[in-house]
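Q: Could you write out the predicted structure for this multi-component system? I'm mainly interested in how the pieces pack against one another.
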Amino acid sequence: MKRNSNSKSTGTSFLEIILSPEVSILVPLLILVAITTAKNPNFLTIKNIQVILRNLVFIGTLAIGQSLVIMCGDIDLSIGTNSTLTGVFFGVALVWWGLGFIPSLLLTIFIGLFIGGVNAFFTNVCKINSWIVTMATKYMCVGMATVITKGYIIPIKDWSNALYEWSRLRPLGGLSWPFFLFFGLIVIGEIAIRFTPIGRKIHAVGLNANAAVLDGINVPKVKAMCQITAGLMGAICGILQVANTNTATNAIGEGNEFPAVISAVIGGVSNTGGKGTMLGVLLGVIMYQTLKNCLQLMGANNNLQLVLLGLILILAVYVDVLKGKISSRARKAVAK
Amino acid sequence: MKQYMIEAIDITKIFPGTVANDHVSLKVKAGEIMGLVGENGAGKSTILKCLNGVYPHDTFDGKILIEGKEVHFKNPLEAMHAGIGYVPQEVNVLPDLNVAENIYMFDLTNGKKTIFVNPKELYKRTEEFLKEAAIDLDPQADVRKLSVGQQQMLMIARALAENPKILILDEPTTSLSSSDVQSLFRVVRSLKEKGLAILFVTHKMDEILELTDSLTVMRDGKNAGFYERADYDQDKIIRDMIGRELSVMYPTRDVEIGEEKFRVEHLSVPHPYILNRFLVEDVNFSVRKGEVVALAGLVGAGRSEIVMSLFGVLPKSSGNIYIDGQQVSINNPQAAMDHGIGLVTEDRKKYGLHFSWSIKKNITISKLKKIMTGPFISGRKETEAAQKYYDAMRVKATSPKELVDALSGGNQQKVVIARTLNAEPDIVFLDEPTKGIDVGAKAEIYEIINDMAKEGKSVIFISSELPELMAMCDRFVVIAEGKVAGELTKEEATEDSIMALATKTFKSVS
């Protein structure tokens, strides 16, 4: 929307299209696909694509929450272990406490919202930097998860296999229910960001929080809403992880906050806030998951994969910086 | 006849679009305190920056002589070594270090080549130095705990530690209480006794009369007058400061002024860091429908703080606000906007705009409710709403879809005003709406102000440019040192009478 208006008025349409998050991901994605297909014909098969799309939902849900928080100019480092803790609660409530499905689900969602609320309280009311707050809650979550499970792995099949089976169903086009759930969240998020006041406000806060104050926007409220939504996304991810593995354990989820950041940034969510769309996040997650899949197929060492992912994060942020420079230069040139 | 310690001769400094200094000359003798006065934008800061090397010698025309010898400074460090001590207007100390460390920042080891600092030696040296300079500070004191006045003294001490021959003090009293001002004056006088040449920049008439030996007045980037102490004439000095030709045409307005719309009583805004000090103290004023009221006063008098606190951005310690006779509570900008107040900010860069957004989005953000269809933003309604104010403000751009980044300062200002008006306020605070914009854009903004008054809006207009206030306002509330120094009707208000109130010093110890 913004890009379109921009291109019409300033005449930098070509540059703007190239630099738009969607296009600037697609090009490297296609190159990656081409190289991997040439090296390994197993890559571009329907089965493998299904694998990629099934696996991306976990990082994907986290990336939705993470990108909302980043758009406001904050970060949520606790979102990975949020999924650990909420997943563990879900399993414990189902299997050990025998609360039943719906109460367990509600409890889990409440825990996720609560973690987001704690983050929001300390960043917005106590005015502590979100890096510090969420780093603290990250460790609190993983610690709590271990305390609650006492280190045990809880098999969900003791309650029922229904959830596991649900997550393996292929209702349409060989895609799983969790994928459709994730895709639904992306669509809702995209509509909210593009077409509703809250989306406009989130971008305003991230671009210039001082100006947002004079716009009449309740800045702490907008930031808190994003952080609490991120907490909810952590809980959804936690439940999906439990369904996928049919176990609840404190070993899943920690460290996933960084792939969520990488996906969001590759997807064009500005690391300084104020920019980004959910469509971009979707493409960012696809890019991240495809890359991971490619590296696995090409037999890259696990540690080497980490090195490459780190490099890609830096590169993605640098591209974001460059985009800012190029487009402002282009704008100035037009203005003259 | 003492020799001139420093002479600046025919300094001309040109910025793109404006001549900041036009053949300005200054001469200060050893053992003399010379005052430098002038309104905001008169070019005082520019000449000081030429003198202290912030502007390298090849970026301006004219000569600078120290003790009769011409000097060429490439940077402030060279100026410092040549004997120019400069104390900037803003207090600029290192709060985590103590007094001695602040003073001898660049010479902690007393010239010895060692990596360890001997604290005893450092404190002893500092104590002797401070005693010599007659500055009352404890070398080991925690800088964070010093008052603004003491921090100002510390900055002077730091400049003196370099053994300057010339000391430049740029409005050192703006943030000081009366007692701090007196101790500052004592120090300055003792430095004069020691033979330093002192250039004292100020706004305040009583300080000039009390402290200085001679006075240079600047106006519109030029020398406007020079006085020896014997010839001081307050009225004449004020006329020299403000007497300029009007270069803008002011539109006339014929509006019936209605009943009282807005009133504030006992407004106080506490200093954010210092206990029991106030940026705004016990301010009362009111505005009627269709009336344009000036908040006049010098920069730093607390004008912006008044409107920022009334808009709910700055916290206030007391203050009752009445709208249409009803008391209202305003603790955040949302509440202010709900009560029909709009603020056009002075600081466009910080508070004004989302620079990577289009004009349209910047205008409509202030009231998204207006442009919605169901839960969604309607593109059609948004374009209509934006177009209305885009046209009303006469923003010069290709279309409302253009990014504000690419606009000139004047047009950006119009977008800021458009954003405020989009929220449909009845009471509008305009904080320096014409700052840094060209004459044509200014005239358009005056028209816009008249339109607001015609619609029955109540306008509070802050400006440092007296002629525009004189022409545009119905009533004048003059602010000095965070307090109301006086109120003038249109008939009573002259540039002299406003200036006399604005430079008033409250002798109460705060």
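A: Regarding packing and overall arrangement: Strands of chain A lie at 154-155, 247-248.
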